[in-house]
TrEMBL record, chain A:
HAMAP family: Anti_sigma_B. The lineage of its organism: Bacteria, Bacillati, Bacillota, Bacilli, Bacillales. This is Serine-protein kinase RsbW. It catalyses: L-threonyl-[protein] + ATP = O-phospho-L-threonyl-[protein] + ADP + H(+); L-seryl-[protein] + ATP = O-phospho-L-seryl-[protein] + ADP + H(+). The gene is rsbW. Gene3D superfamilies: Histidine kinase-like ATPase, C-terminal domain. Belongs to the anti-sigma-factor family.
From TrEMBL, chain B:
Positive regulator of sigma-B activity. Non-phosphorylated RsbV binds to RsbW, preventing its association with sigma-B. When phosphorylated, releases RsbW, which is then free to complex with and inactivate sigma-B. Residues 3-110 form the STAS domain. Belongs to the anti-sigma-factor antagonist family. It comes from the Bacteria. Pfam families: STAS. This is Anti-sigma factor antagonist. GO terms for molecular function: anti-sigma factor antagonist activity. The keyword Phosphoprotein applies.
Length: 158, 110
């Protein structure tokens, strides 16, 4: 049986708390023995998820909260980020992610278009559940055991 | 977890020195300072990111906006002194092909 320690954290759905979450993830990842590079990746990926939740939650309810869960396994860290707002159009979001390519004009670039793409690029696995509110579940393995960086993908459970 | 934004005007360039973290909280402040500068036709803006130790997609968003605005208004914007981590984000997203990033130590002759 795969045992794990679990840390739960709730922050107000406000931009000023994204940095607080970043300090927390940095501490957790450091204690688990992630490399400096991986800790920096985790900071960006988790910040992206929280930023999305804050932006999204704010549209629904100004006084919302973002709930985070950190499951600490021997070989990996799972991070759950949940807002409790309404759902969003996942197909629409997925259609718009990816790196910039030469043939696209700058006018097509959206300012907020790289958040989900960066989560995928920096984590080993990203899943999004969109049933009630949005829940992002991201996994990163210590020392890249298991999944290669190139195998990044988003899977969805609706 | 704050961002310090220091703007100094030189004869031929405007130097913007950033220090701290660019995230969802600080990106709007950066945007408010940077966009009005790009509206000035003919100016050259050099953004020094030497002391930016964290940036995410919100920062990329600000620089995309600044680039769009500079193209519309006939100004020019260059980024320089990027830390490896920050530079990596531009590379992963492919934006290094679009945004003028000076990889040398300094983009300013002073």
């Amino acid at each position: 049986m795969d045992t794990f320690d679990f840390i739960e954290m709730k922050v107000p759905a406000k931009e000023e708390y994204v940095g607080v979450v970043r300090l927390s993830i940095s501490g957790i990842a450091n204690r688990m023995g992630f490399t400096y590079e991986d800790i920096e990746d985790l900071k960006v990926a988790v910040s992206e998820a929280v930023t999305n939740a804050v932006t999204h939650a704010y549209e629904v309810n100004e006084n919302g909260e973002v709930t985070l869960g950190f499951a600490i396994y021997k070989d990996r860290l799972e991070v759950m980020v949940a807002d409790h707002g309404g759902s969003f159009n996942l197909q629409e979001v997925k259609k718009n992610i990816g790196p910039y390519e030469n043939d696209r004009s700058i006018d097509e670039l959206r300012e907020g278009g790289f958040g989900l793409f960066l989560m995928q690029a920096l984590m080993d696995k990203v899943e999004i559940n969109n049933d009630s509110g949005v829940i992002v579940l991201m996994t990163k393995f210590i020392e890249e055991i298991g999944v290669e960086l190139d195998d990044d993908h988003v899977s969805t459970t609706q | 977890m704050n961002l310090e934004i220091n703007v100094t005007e030189h004869p031929d360039i405007i130097l913007v020195q950033l220090s701290g973290e660019i995230d969802a909280y600080t990106a709007p402040q950066l945007k408010d300072k940077l966009i009005p500068l790009t509206n000035r036709k003919g100016v050259r803006i050099e953004v020094d990111l030497e002391n930016v130790n964290y940036m995410d997609s919100t920062g990329l968003g600000v620089f995309i906006s600044a680039l769009k605005s500079s193209k519309e208004n006939g100004s020019k914007i260059t980024l320089f002194n990027l830390k490896d981590r920050v530079q990596r984000l531009f590379k992963i997203t492919g934006l290094h092909q679009l945004i003028d990033i000076n990889l040398d130590e300094r983009g300013v002759n002073n």
